[in-house]
Amino acid sequence: MELNESEREKQTKLARIRALGINPFPPRAEWIAQRVMAIEAADRAKSTGSNTDNQNADQPEQASHTSTPTQPFSVMGRVIRKNTKGKVSFAHIEDESGKVQFFARLGDDSLSAERFQLWDSLIDVGDWVEAVGIPFLTKAGEPSLRISAWNLLSKAITPLPLAKEEKQTDGSIKRYSAFADPDLRFRQRYTDLAVNPEVREIFIKRARLVKGIRDFMDSNGFLEVETPILQPLYGGAAARPFTTHHNQLDQDLYLRISYELYLKRLLVGNIERVYEIGRDFRNEGVSFKHNPEFTQIEFYAAYMDVFAVMELTERMIQAAARAVLPASTNGISQFRGNTINWFQPFARQTMRDAICEHTKLDYTLFPDAESLGAEIVKQNLMSAELVRGKTRGKLIDSLLGDYVEKTLIQPTFLYDYPRDISPLAKSKVDDPATVERFEGFIGGMELCNAFTELNDPFDQEQRFLDEQKGGDDEAQLLDEDYIRAMRYGMPPNGGFGMGIDRLAMLLTDKDTIREVILFPHLRQG
User: Is the pTM of this model over 0.85?
Assistant: First the structure.
């Protein structure tokens, strides 16, 4: 890779460092980082009667420290600011928990003239360093470390596009990021994380979210398991798979689109409550809420129906929100300019009532695709071209997506779905064309999906076959081993799936899924 002028200058400095016998990339740090303890010690070091260092007015800060020194502490991190004026050098060092200021002065007994000059001439913004020193507070109240020893941990060759910080009249800091282009940020997430602390915070919150869900599931008697990512047959969702090939076995395999059929096999094996958090892969379009690979949680519980799952889901999502949102918010957050109340009871409405409310069309009056499609065109809800070729269930689902979904800002469960778009769900006893299924919506988009699961092997086999007749390239394949498992007896159960990435979008108020996935898929550029 060709170096630019700035990188070539760094490379020259790197050669100087090596010539001095300094390893610019040592295998380990010599000291244990104590940044938080150093800051606490600096706070304690502030007192009346402190000495004032003799500094010129044009130097970056005026520093004061007590005449009684505290114990030395060690700090390590990346240099994000460095300013040397005459005999005094200041630098800001940042690690994942925050930043601290380093202070060094030529002539101090604590740091030799040689080490000061090497610090001044060899260390640049972007380098990783470690140092030991006495903590103190500057007159401006900034925790600082008067360094007595330092080491280079890693020499940066490419300069970071660091943000500018401007102090406001109210004392707050306004940041102007030099690395704000979304496409470049997603392609170089390492740089994005290094220079934009608010991006690091997104992924800290995401980790808390996942932990909150995992803790909730564990505390409710679910066993976390792992199922195959490479599968001989894909299933459990309506999606096109990615295909790969195992050379030794000469066998085509699929990256999973869901864990469902494997997790339900475990119910047959007497594991009554199971869940998995992991990656799924769907060969579909990319949008603000779709990425080809994404993180999902699915769970299945014996003896639960769709309404028991609904109740559990509400508590699980609220537990996730509680893990992410500060207690002071009382469960209130923003998403795309809308206020969401996570801790209020989730609304519940049938799919029929929701579509009637927003379109005035009662689809239950039209028992087949032909009659429903004609009525949809008559009422100018969809064009004849868009209606053509769709099943009755797909037409109903289109009405939901076009007219209802965007209105569901507060947490809402819609239930009672058409059978022909729910091949794994159990039909209602009094209405065989409708299944016991719900979807959860928040912020105007779908978040989760759940069923009272089908456990009749003969009904399940016929539904797989019916799907194949429809010619849909996203139809479920006939999984004979899954049918075999069901024939051993599957208990009545409820199942659930939710995209973790979408929930992270909602809880961090991000417009696109790419903001909450560390390395999202992008077009080659």
Answer: yes
